[in-house]
Amino acid sequence: MRALLKIGISLLVMAGLVWGGMAYYRQRRPQSTGSFKHAVVRRGDLVQTISSTGTIEPEEVIDVGAQVAGQIIAFGRDRHGKPIDYGSAVETGTVLAQIDSSLYASDVTQSNATLVQAQANAQRAEADLGQLNAKLVQAENDWKRAQELGPSDALARTSYDAYKAAYEVARANLAVGEATLAQAKGAVLQADAALKRAQRNLGYCTIVSPVEGVIIDRRVNIGQTVVSSLNAPSLFLIAKDLKRMQVWVSVNEADIGRIHAGQPVTFTVDALPDRTFRGKVGKIRLNATMTQNVVTYTVVVTADNSNGILLPYLTANVQFEVARRAGVLEVPNAALRWNPAPEQMAADQRNRLPNAGGRQGQAAMLWEEAADGLRFIRVHAGMTDGVMTEVEGDDLKEGMAVITGADHEAAAAPDSETNTNPFTPQFPRGRQGNRGSR
User: Fold this and answer.
1) Residues 6+ positions from 144 with CB-CB distance below 8 Å
2) CA separation for the pair 262, 280 (Å, rounded)
3) Mean pLDDT of each 10-residue bin along the chain, 438 residues long
4) Which of 109, 149, 213, 258 has its CA 20 to 30 A from that of 93?
5) Which residues contact 365 (CB under 8 A, 6 or more apart)?
């Protein structure tokens, strides 16, 4: 029994020594271990934007079609004397293409002959009207003389009636002649209109450019037959002025309320990733579209393209400038989200932690390293662009280094659940210092 008692007492003494060593180690170990990632509080311009994508479009595009049917027999020449093709620069009135005009030339010849015949008929009707007018004058004079004599021995009753009837017939013939002349003149006008129509159709066989611009699409080839029906066939697509471009941007309904005319815009294109282009909002189209229950509006952005570097139909990555703050102190958003573990803080900081949010318009905290541990800086979070956030605070200074995170290679501080014998070897583990991140 005494032997067992001695063994139990020895075990209790050894356990007490181990526990005392562990307590001593916990009290004497450093308060802050490992290394941290830092960022410098800097002063700069902060811009809040709305991101979207769009397509670069020419400011004005003219679709040149054909009003007559026929076969394309030739193309015109551009300002450099080369045949009309993709990218050709054209002036107003430049011949773009020629349609076979033989049928329309025949219509012009036929309409011209019809006009000549109508004009001849009108001249004949006018001459006939002159004869009828002379006959009326003669009949009127005979009738006047017959009225002076009256039915008597010198003028038989039958002759008197004959003069009267001749006068009435001459008046009626004159009216018929006037109607015939009016009909002939109407036929002349009709023939003249038909001739002008035939001439216009003949003119439509020559396709000319209505504006000065650049051919961005040629949709026909020589030998191809175009057929004009209810819709005019499209032959060429002309961009009127490539020195001014538009970006058609689809904006979600949640963001459209912050878009307005004249708003500054920056955008990039994948073809020129190192260049940033500037423009402004021209208009917001009200014909919204819905795709899979998502409503979007088309916003038209105008941009200068005097150097001709922007090409039609490039995809643009657009940034609408919603707000701008110049010359403010700013820190990475990670600095506002990061919080240390309690054992990493300075002893006098643990019971003074404010209730900080870190969102725009709320109180927030930044952390800096000190000799006795990590100390917080009270700040007020302002506008953010998604990466950097404006901050204000009495203890905040430009150039100050604040913590944004902990290196993953640093050893984690032990807690009550992972305490081990301080005399046993410790293996490296990941730090848990960012356990307060949100």
Assistant:
1) none
2) 5
3) 64 68 50 72 90 93 91 91 91 94 94 94 90 87 80 73 86 90 93 95 93 92 85 87 93 94 95 94 94 94 93 95 91 90 83 59 83 88 89 89 75 44 44 37
4) 109
5) 336, 339, 353, 354, 356, 358, 376, 377, 378, 379
